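for the record, two folds in this file. i put them one after another cuz i was lazy. first one right below, seq on top, structure tokens after. the second one comes after a little note so u can tell where it starts
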Amino acid sequence: MLYLSKINLKKDRKEELMTKKAYLYGILLILLSISCSQKQDSGLTIAAASNMQFAIKQLSKTFTIQTGIPCTLVISSSGKLTAQIKEGAPFDVFMSADEKYPKELFETGRTNGAPKIYGYGKLVLWSMHKDIDVSLGILSKPNVRHIAIANPKTAPYGVAAVEVLRKHNLYDTIQNKLVYGESISQANQFIVSKSAEIGFTSKSVVLSSQIKNKGKWISLDEDDYSKIAQAVVVIKQEVETQKKAKKFYNFLSSASAKKILEEYGYSTP
């Protein structure tokens, strides 16, 4: 009898484990179903140049309110985002800080249509140091040891900053003071942390609610650098995603989008 009891106990235990396994398997199926559903409803992934880090939040929020389509944002330098797209990054929309990178993607067949200019960026000189009188002339002074700038190899605003320095015959004099950020966001970090006494950034940054009234800045003459024409493209994806992406592409030409862009210091077409 003892022997049979042990067998029955083992049998009961086995059935209990099988029931638990079936229960856990059911939960797993539900979670997978939810995951798939979330993926289908995940909306758009928008890759945006670093100068757009504040403006794109307001743009995407307004777009979602108007269309019900949620947006996930990826912020980096235009050059780095382009490289990621070429490697197959699952971005649906690419908002560059120039026309060059979107044209490159279009010409290599990676986009659904040609690039469109959504705004023109503006360059400013900015400092968080109270004792710095912000001007181009101060860049060569001894109390300015570090000048933050976005890497001109990957960031169009870095290219514009170098053009300004060359235009004013300052580049050769202060070249050894330049501290390069991977993107304009990193250049901003150097300025905000005061690691750099002064630096070049986008006007959209200093006008953002997060940064407004922090430090001192001046606008730079737009004749001193090439026009920063910022373009957007829709990346080739499956049909339904491209339809949503096209809605965002068209939204950027709307009155509400232009108003937001202009509030952040961009001029619009």
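(here's the note) second protein begins now
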Amino acid sequence: MEPFITVSGIAAPFPAANVDTDVIMPKQFLKGIDRRGLDHGLFFDLRWHGDGTPNPDFVLNRSGWEDARFLVVGPNFGCGSSREHAVWGLKQVGIRALIGTSFAGIFYDNCQRNGVLLIQLDAREHRRVLEEVSQPDTALIEIDLPAQCIRLADGTAIAFTIDGLRKQALIDGLDAVGSTLRKTRLIQAFEEQHLRANPWLA
């Protein structure tokens, strides 16, 4: 995974509540045997008209937000089924972080495992960020994960909290397997000690 340390980019406002994973990645894009094409499937019914042309009303198709690296989302984002394809699609279009007030639990875990940072803010701070990014000329922000801080275009710094293990894994660019493999020597030492104490297990 690509490490997440300090990342700057455009943040797009998408404050709809209860956006589920079928909206993020519709079911017809789950049929493939690999991850190709999920960038096209992301928010498919919102981004595209029936004839395949872009919907100019959708925020990621609008001038100033088309190259967004972050989304400022509404409450309970990622609810619904536990399809990891939703996160893969977000990554394929270049989304590095989501900023909201609450996220569905399985979706949160899927994002963590795939290197997408989720930031939970209280309602007041979320509203402040949303107001700032709702105009393209002030939508450029910086997320400093080591400092746990969002820096807005006007210089305002907004702190956020994150579990220490999740934070370190994102900074190091490690998924759950990579984080576990870092402890290979400790695991091997435990196995050896455990077998010495319980030789019948061998």
